[in-house]
Amino acid sequence: MMKLLLLILQLALLNEAKTLESALKDSFKEETHVHFDLPARNNTARQPCPAIGDVPIVTQDKKEFYGVRYYDGRGHPVTALSCNGDYHDRVSGYNDSAPEGEGWLMGTLYVHAGCIFDGFSDYNYEGSYKEYQGPVFLSEVPDVFGNTCNDGIPCVASYIVTCKQKMPDCVPDDRWTTVASFDNSGSSLPSTFTYKYVIGTTWSNQMSEGSDVSTTVSGEMKASFWGRFEATIGVSHTTGYNWGYISTQAKQERQEFTVETKVPGGKGIKIQQTSGSCGSSDVSTEALRSVEVMANGEFGEILILN
């Protein structure tokens, strides 16, 4: 009888051990997931910091260049964790001094190509300063301004933004320009006349320097330049040229051409070209005409050449 009871007890213990082993195996099969929620940016779902080439460099009205963008939230050495808080785009020529006892928070900073950011440790652009020349992207601005605010975020008491590039602010005009002339009024025989002219644009120093900054800056400046001709002149009452459809050739660097023509005896000829100016930039278009000059000085037949 005793042996039977011991056998029953051993079987019960063995069964309980198997049940425990099975339960442990099942528990290890279950995966444990830990969720880390990144902080939201500007009360929205987090987005990665934009590449510096994706940050706007001109205002919506295309009248000014932005020099910098900064975020007033905490920066981070990991780009995906920076660009926090609100961002502020500042145009070339912008400067600001914070109210007494305050500072401008700068956790993340972009400085565009051709532009300079000077941040000062004191108000009214005094004290020590740190200069950044673009193109620069700082996902976490270091403590270089001599001030920190809001639990260690770098801040400046005053700052200045400057850029080499500027949008053209000139007023365009156009005219017929005499590029060559030949007087054959003293002869009764036709004569051969060879003349030269150029097509293309000569840029002002301001336009050239700004265009050298980058292809993107150059494109914005030139689009603004040609847009001024279209908006101000359109189809010219002076020359008849449509400045809304300027030829590619006229927009490029100047190229010289040589032409040979016949001038009848007893007459003269003037070769005139539609040209335009805006500031110190000059445009020589492909539009040419021949103006006949009679022996008495009066104008005769006008022929459109191009």
Structure description:
The N terminus is likely disordered. The protein is rod-shaped, with a radius of gyration of 37 Å. The protein contains 4 helices and 17 strands. It starts with a helix and ends with a strand. The chain has 306 residues and is an alpha+beta fold. The relative contact order is 0.12. The longest helix is centred in the first third of the chain and has 28 residues. Strands 12, 13, 14, 15, 16 and 17 form a 6-stranded antiparallel β-sheet that branches. Strands 2-1-5-8 form a 4-stranded antiparallel β-sheet, with no helix packed on it. It has a 4-stranded antiparallel β-sheet with strand order 3-11-6-7, with no helix packed on it.
| Largest sheet geometry | 6 strands, antiparallel
The helix count comes to 4
Poorly predicted regions: 1-9, 23-45
Helix content: 10-25%
Strand segment count: 17
Question: Which assembly state applies to the chains in this document?
Answer: single chain
Name the helix and strand elements from N-terminus to C-terminus, one letter apiece: HEEEEEEEEEEEEEHHHEEEE
Outline = rod-shaped
The SS-based structural class is alpha+beta
**Cα end-to-end separation:** 126 Å
Strand content bin: 35-45%
> How much is the average pLDDT?
86
Estimated radius of gyration: 37 Å
